[in-house]
C-alpha cells in the first residue's frame, strides 16, 4: 500500500532529474560561493542521526524549507507523500501521534489531542479516547470529538477526497456501507456507525475485527480533525484549517507557502510539538541541482522532500561540508523479487541460485554505494521496524558480499537446471539507478549460466504491468526490481502487502512473488490480534524468517539518504517514524 | 589575394588541357561527372572518409575491441570510487588501458561501448533509411504517375503521417510490444521495431520528392516516345522513370541517415531504444545526465560520437547533392 507514496514520490523525483538536467546547464556557473557560516557551526557528520543535534529551546526566527516537489495535497485526508505527513504536524493534530525523539524511539505513540492512549476493550474491538481540555481551532472555536469524527469520515468520500491512505476506511467499514459525509443524509453529517461521539470530549471506535495497528493508522494525518463548517471539500488542501501550532498564511501550489503562528494553539495542551520558529516558509523550485547549491550556500535550511542530495552535489557535501550532512536510513528496502508463477522461478532452488549468485557488493555500488545507496540488506525487514533482526543472514550475504558461485551452482543442480536458465528482468525505465542494479544483477548471474534479458517497462504504468499478475506471467518476468517503504512502522505496514496471499490483486498488486503460504497468512492473523507491540514483533520476526526461507526476495540494500542540514538548524534529529527525515515539528533556528 | 585565385584557375585549365590530348574526346556518363565534382569538394570528401571509417568501425567492432578495449559488458568496479560511483582515475578514468575512460558505477569500458554503439546507430539508421526509400519511392512514383484519386489518396496518407506525433507513438508502441516476435527476442525485436517505425514515418518525405519529380518527368518527350512505341506501364515506371529518379533519391537517403541516427539516439535516451546491456549512444547520454558535474567526460564522449557522425553524414550528403545536381540551390 505504500506504492502510491513511494512510487509516486520517486517517479516525480525521476522526472525532475531529467527536466533539471535539461534546464540546469545555465545554472552550472555558480559553484562554491560564500557559505554563510555566520556565527553558527555545523555539529558534524551524522550528528542528527538517532540523536539530537544543536538541542535548544530558543524561539523565534524563520525556518526556510526548499523543495523540488510540492505535496500531492496538503489536505490531511488526501496527502500520501512521506514529507507531507511529517510537515502536516505543523497545522494538524491527531488523537495520538509519534514521540518527538530521535530514531526508533520516535515510532512509539503518544497521546496528542487525547488525554491518553486508547482504552482498548472487547478483545481489541473497541477503542475509546477522551479529548484534552482547552483544545481550540485557529479561529478560537473549541475542537470537539465531532470534528475528529468528521475529519476521519472525509476518507470515505473517495470521489472527492482522493489520494490519501484508506486504512481507516478498510478497518472501520470493510464492506463500504457508509457513503461519506458529502452524501450523508443525517443533519450533522456524522452518519458513520463505527465511530461514536457520546459527548464533545469522548470518541469511541468500534472495529468489526481487531487490528493491533489501529492506533498507528489514527496517527497518520488522515486521522486529523476537520470542522464540518470549514470543510471546502476538494479545495481544503489549499488552506487547511489549523489545529496545530502554525496556520496557513499563503500558499501558491508548486511555488511557495508561508505558515505563521496559530495564536489559538496553546503549548499547555501539546507536549509533542516544540513550535520554535515564528514563521515557516517553503520555496518550491524545479531544479534539484540548483536547490542543492542553494542549500550549501546557506540560503535555505533543509530540503522539504528530503530525498537526498543529488549526484552532482554529493562529492561537495561529503567532502567540504560533511559536518552539515546526515546519512540516515530511510526505512526503504531495495530488492529483486521472483514471481513464482513464472518458470523456473516456481522452483525454490532456482530462486536460491539467483540469491546466491548475486554480487551484493556490486548491487550496492549500483544503488550509490554504502552512503548514498545504503547497507547491504541480509533480509526483508529494515531496522526501523519492531521485530527486525539485522544479524539474521540466511544466505551469508554479509560475509560473501560478492556472491557464492559454488553454492549457487549446487542449487541450480537441485533445481534441475545445472547449466543455468533464461529469464527476464523487469525494471522501470525512468529509474537509472534501478537499471544500473538490473545490469549488475545480469552480469553476476551470467557467471553461473543464468542468462537474463532486461525489459524496461514504463515506470508510470507500474501498477498495470508488474502490478498485474497476468501481465507478469505473459511477459515472463522471472525477476522484478523494486523498492518498498512502510506507511506505518510495523510488520503489518511493511511486510503484509508484500507477502500475504490475501493482498494479491489483479492490478496494483505488491505481492509480486505471489506468495501463497498459509503459514505466513496465519502468522499475520496472529500478529494483528496481539495488543502488545513486542509480542507482535516476535511474530513479525517469524514471518520475516519464513519469507527468507522461501527465497522469494533478493534484498539489495536498506536504503540510506544523504540529507543536508543547515548550520542554523536547532533541535535536529532523524525520526524512524518519518522514514529517516528530521522531525519537522521539533526544528528551530538560531 | 589574387595570386592563389590565379593559381587555381591555371591548374584547372592545365588539368583540362592535359586530359584532352591523352584520351582524345570521350563521352562522360552523368555518374562520372558527379564523381569528379564530388572529388573536388574537399569538405564532402572529408565527410565521406569519416563515414567510411565509421562503417568499418561498425563492421569490425569485435576486432577493434579485442585489440584496444575490454568486452563491452564487463564490469570493472575496481576502477570506481564506491562512495560516489565515479571513476577513480582523472578525466573519467581515461588511460592507456581504457582509451575513453570507464563508465560511472560499473566501470564498463567506454571505448568498447562507443565502438559497439556505432553498430546500433548505423544499422538502425541505414535499415530505416532503406525502408523509407523503398516505401517512399514506390508510393511517390505511383502518386506522381497515375495522378487523380491515387495521388489524392496517397497524398492524404502522407499528410497524416507527417502530422503524426512520431516520438509519442513509438514510446507507447514499444511499451506494449511483446518480448519476442516472429522468433526474435530482446534487442533484435527492439531494433526491428525501431527500424520499421522510423522508416515508416520517414517515407512521406521521400514520397513527396519522388512524386514531384515524377510529375515533371512523365511529361517528357522520351516518356511520350516510349508510350507511343507501345511500352507498358511497368516498363515506363521502372525502366524509363526510375533511373532518372536515382539522383534525388540518393541525395535524400544520404541526408536522411543522420536524422535517423538522431532519432535513434533520442529514443534510446528516452528508454525505448535497444535494451541494456546492449550499448547505444543515446542510452549512454541518459546515464551521463546524473553525472554531468562529477564526470563530464562521460557525457562528452557519446555526445561527440553523435555529433561527429551526424556532421560527417550531413557534409557528405550535401556534397552528393551538389555533385548530382549542380544547379540546385543550397
UniProtKB/TrEMBL annotation, chain A:
GO terms for biological process: peptide transport. Residues 109-501 form the Solute-binding protein family domain. PROSITE patterns: PROKAR_LIPOPROTEIN, SBP_BACTERIAL_5. One of its GO terms (molecular function) is peptide transmembrane transporter activity. It comes from the Bacteria. The keyword Signal applies. This is Peptide/nickel transport system substrate-binding protein. It comes from Actinacidiphila glaucinigra.
TrEMBL record, chain B:
Pfam families: BPD_transp_1, OppC_N. Keywords: Cell membrane, Membrane, Transmembrane, Transmembrane helix, Transport. The chain crosses the membrane at residues 43-65, 120-145, 157-177, 189-210, 297-316. InterPro entries: BP-dependent_transpt_permease (IPR050366), MetI-like (IPR000515), MetI-like_sf (IPR035906), OppC_N (IPR025966). One of its GO terms (cellular component) is plasma membrane. It is found in: Cell membrane. GO terms for biological process: transmembrane transport. Residues 118-317 form the ABC transmembrane type-1 domain. CDD domains: TM_PBP2. Signal peptide: none annotated. Its main location: membrane. It is a multi-pass membrane protein. Belongs to the binding-protein-dependent transport system permease family. This is Peptide/nickel transport system permease protein. It comes from Actinacidiphila glaucinigra.
